[in-house]
Predict the 3D structure of the following.
Amino acid sequence: MEAQSLPAALPLVAGGGAGLSPERRAALGASLPLLQRDYRFERVWFWGCIQGLRGAYYIAEGLGPNRAAPRSRLYSLNCLDWSLLTPATKEVLALAEQLKGRFQGDPSFEYSLAEINAEAAARLIEGGKEPVIKEEARLIATIEQIDRAVGIVPRGAFVKTPLGSVHENRHFEGLSLLEAKKLSSYFHFTEPVNLKNKTLLEKADLDPSTDFLDSLEHDIPRGSWSIQLEKGGTVVVLRSLLWLGLTFYHVPMTKQFGYVYFGTGEKNLDLPFML
Amino acid sequence: HGPYRPHEPGYGLDQPGYSPYEDQIPDPQARMLAIKNAKAYLLKTSTRSGLNLYDHFANILTKILDEQPANTVDIIEDISKDVKWAQFQKKMDTLRDEHQTLPTFEAAEKCKALFVKESGEEHEELDEEMGQPSLPNVMETAFYFEQAGIGLDKDESYYILLSLKNLINVQPIQTCRFWGKILGLERNYIIAEVQLHEGEGGEEETGEEEETVAEEEKETDEAEEEGEEKEKEAEPPKSTYKPPPEVPKEENGTGTNKYVYFVCNEPGKPWVKLPPVTPAQIVCARKIKKFFTGRLDAPIVSFPPFPGNEANYLRAQIARISAGTHVSPTGFYQFANEDEEEEDGDAYEENPEFEPPPVADMVESLATWAHHVKGILKQGRCVWINPSQKSEENEDEDEEEEDKEEEEEEQEEERGLPLLTLISEDEGIKNIPAWIAQPSTNLIPQYSVAILQSNRWPGAYAFASGRKFDNIYFGWGHKYSPESHTPALPPPAQAEYPSGPGITETVDPTVEEEIAFKIAQEEALAGEEEEGEEEEGEDD
């Protein structure tokens, strides 16, 4: 969620019981604007918090002029001192998917690869490095996976210019109540995968400036999103069941929306059994 | 200014194709297309009124040319409105559009109803008789949990407080507590843990039992009649399978059914009482993992099949969570009878001499916290019972003998941890400890609160600050397991009867074979009896 709308948005996602303590909130209010100044970000998003066993990671993302460009991610253990994370590479993503269990809370903690993936360990040893993977790398990979899988925005909130860059739509007035209850009104905010597979008939109805992302309708497995109207029907809250802890909120007919993750950073692989 | 010379700016711009506005005037083909597009745009119908601009302009111009009013340009807007009004005049009938009642307005009405202060003499009388039930201070608890970043929005907490007040006014409640919130797919559950006045909860139960007993008697009568009719026909042999005796559920007020739980979907909606939990439900709930939908009557489709619907599953999960995660500072509660420190000791009371340890100690060592709810045994109860003993009351003599034969498979008595065990005894899962203790803030230790998070049931929290403490649950209602959930496999196919000559089918002999066999047999007989009469052989 936008750093500036933190005070108003945190109560809207508090339906799941997770939130920030007053101390953290105050710290974020002070440190996020400084982050924007230091790194020259155009927008700063508070991504959320991954709870480890001995500590928690607070994550922020910074966006440049093209909102769809790869975002810079930063983490902090106390909401005050932020460290930049390197972008995720494919190898790191593949390795981190095999790591199971909770995060430890210590960024320099090392997971021994030998137990998990002998080949990768062997490759690393040949390369002269230790067969370990650090928790920081796992953190990078997890954030990237969550953003790719369940980072969502409402339809029409972002427009794509003919030059390819993506901006916020200044004429976005919010989804109507009827639209807000449908899964097709929300898009994954990453590179689209299914868009080219649509039939020609469907493509003819699309507006290329706003419909350039995948919608949630065809997510597998079906039913992996829970849509609810909370607070007496004034807020639409979507909760992901694949990554438990990701909450998206939108107040219909207003410009307020955002998503935040409060959880343990583990994928819910039991989802098909639980539906 | 005459024709431009090559060295002057503006040379050649008057030639067709080179004027500076060339890019704005499209070539004729494109111009026709632009005109068509413009006309098509004008012909587009409005979604709200069904009119389109083209027809509307045509009507206005027609009207103007017909009537030729003076100073048309000054009143053109009114003419446009008149044309629109004239369009609709004939179609207007007495029906009008209903104001849309959005669900938001209904919900707001319900929330507003919560704020109405109930005044009535009846309530005051009831209160005097039964003693004032204590409304839990939900806002205070919410404040302490907020220091750790846990908890609902303040508005929602206040609505919950008001709903609990309504619940207390309606039901005969002794103590009440906000247990927590369980999220569901379509709706969430807000759960209140309640102790009813003695004797109040039990009436409903006995009523139901009597009804079911009467029904069973009716069924057995009908079965006997049918049996008499059927005696003439050959019946297949009755199966000798007796299902294993059911483990009886615990009495209301003890063990897993110590508290009664009320749930509602949202504050403002009526509270629904959850049925007491049976051990079979707990045992099954341990094997399945399902999301709650938010409707209490939703069926649970699972394997092994869950004996009940979502209300029962919810109650079973609540029982498991309470048993696993409800803790208090050590020493806050003590046993009522000092002799009763065995496993059966269920009664505890507050210790008036409790000295709360400082927050730093509570965070450092887990031995400063203790469970105050009994753990659930494998059987599904808090107190072990031998199920075959109970069943003797209801059966005939014949069946008693069969039971005694089955007693060889007696279950081992299970022993659980006694009440008030320290949570440092809780086992972790792999290398993850069962609990994480943290202070709410490191910067201001004087006012920090000790917070416990459970790792076995993610979403269960406890706080302690001085003499105050509480437990709460916010989550989806499932236990944490580092491995993926593997559903129970169906039981293996039952072994068939071993095949042997006694039951293998063989082809029936044909008539000729039978005759030939008979002849051969008799020849053998005749051969054996040297003095056998040949007349018999010839007759056959």
Notes: Residues 449 and 465 of chain B are 5 Å apart (CA to CA). The two ends of chain B are 146 Å apart (CA to CA). Chain B touches chain A through 52 residues (CB under 8 Å).
